[in-house]
Amino acid sequence: MSNLYGKLGINPAFIEAGKSKLPGLTNGPGDAYRHVIGAAELTRRHGEATARVILEGNELSGDFLKGQKPEEKAMDRHNNEIGIEIGRAAPTYDDVVQRAREKIDSAVEGNEGPDVPTWLPKEKWGTAGGTNWPPDWEQVEPIPESEKYEYGDEEHRYPGWRGDEDFEETGDPLARPVETWSEEDVNAVMKSDAYWRHWDPDYEAMHKFVDRWHERYYGNGPVVRDAQGRINPIRPIPAGRGGGPVQVRAHDRAGGKVAVRSHERSRPG
Length: 269
Description:
Blueprint: H1 2-8, H2 11-20, H3 29-46, H4 48-66, H5 70-89, H6 93-108, H7 159-162, H8 165-168, H9 183-191, H10 193-196, H11 203-218, E1 247-251, E2 257-261
Antiparallel strand pairs: 1-2
Helix pairs in contact: 2-3, 3-4, 3-5, 3-6, 4-5
C-alpha cells in the first residue's frame, strides 16, 4: 500500500508534514498542511477528476471507519480545495511544497477566505506534531536523496496540465482541463449519467467542473445579452472538440467498477 501511496503522491504529503514539525498533525496546522500538499500533488500528477474521487473517498472512509466529525470533514474539504488549485498550476512537487507553505503563512498572518488554509481551535488539536510554530521553514530538514520522491519533476505532471499536443486531441473532456472545454464539451458532461445521478461517485466533481466552466466563461455577475437575446461570454470560449463520450464509472453485477460511456447501459466493447 505504501508503494501505491508513493505513486499516487500521498506519501510525500505525510513525510513533508512530519518533517515540517508543525503542531497538530490531527485537526491542526500540520493536518491542514498535509491535506493541501496531498490534494495538490494528486491533482498535479493525476488531474482534477481523479484527485477529487480519491480525496472524497478518503473523507467518506473517515466518516464510516473513524467517526469523523462534521467540522473535521469541513476543514479537510476546505484545505483539499486549496490543494487542488495549487495542483492545477504547480509544475513540480517542489513548487507544490513552496506554494503550500505560502498558504500556511497566509493563515498565520490572520488572513481568511476560500484560498487560505484553516484548522480547528488549538484545544482540538491532536498531540502528534512538533513545536515549529509559528512556522520557520528554514528549520525543516531537507529530505535525504535516498528518500527523494521520484515522481516530483515536471515529466510526471498530468499531461492535461502540460498541454501535450497528443493528449489534447482526446475527445473526452474529463481528460482535459476545464479551461480548455468548448460548449460541446460542457454539454457532453451535463448529459452524462454521472452529472444527473446524485448517488454516482463522480456526481459532485462533475457539478464542480461545470460550475467552474460557467463562472470562467460567463462570470457570476449580471447577464449580458446580444441583439438576438443570446448570453454574451465574458471571454472567448475554446473552439469545439466534438464533445466526445464522457467516461464515467458504474458497477457491474459482481460489484466491480467498469467504465461506461454516457447514456450507455452496457459495458463498452
